[in-house]
Amino acid sequence: PSTPQTHVTGGAGGSTSTTGSASIGTDTKAAAISGCVGNYNIVLSAVSDYETLNGGPPPAGSAWATSATGGPILQSWPSDPEYYTLEWNGSELSVIPKHGTPSHGNVGTTSPPTGCHAA
User: Fold this and answer.
1) Confidence of residue 1 (pLDDT cuts 50, 70, 90)
2) Claim: this prediction has a pTM higher than 0.70
């Protein structure tokens, strides 16, 4: 379980607020979703860059983006294994959440939650 966080603001007349563990979990999930969407877009941009440089889509996997041979376009392949991984199959980018339904060719949907939104 998460430990509640206490924030003190201001000087002698400042205020104190406590964030409960439920809020911390919600904030963490929101951060994971936001990170997933951002990372998805980063990889899509890398795919586009590769296509521009090489005249066609990159091969399946991530080596095309991170190796010295084809790039590196990215310093490392983005993921957050606790919540999701991104997979490129040579024609489509997929979001594979740790729990939930994958999305293929998009970041996923909020209802029902798929892809990044199921992270």
Assistant:
1) very low
2) yes
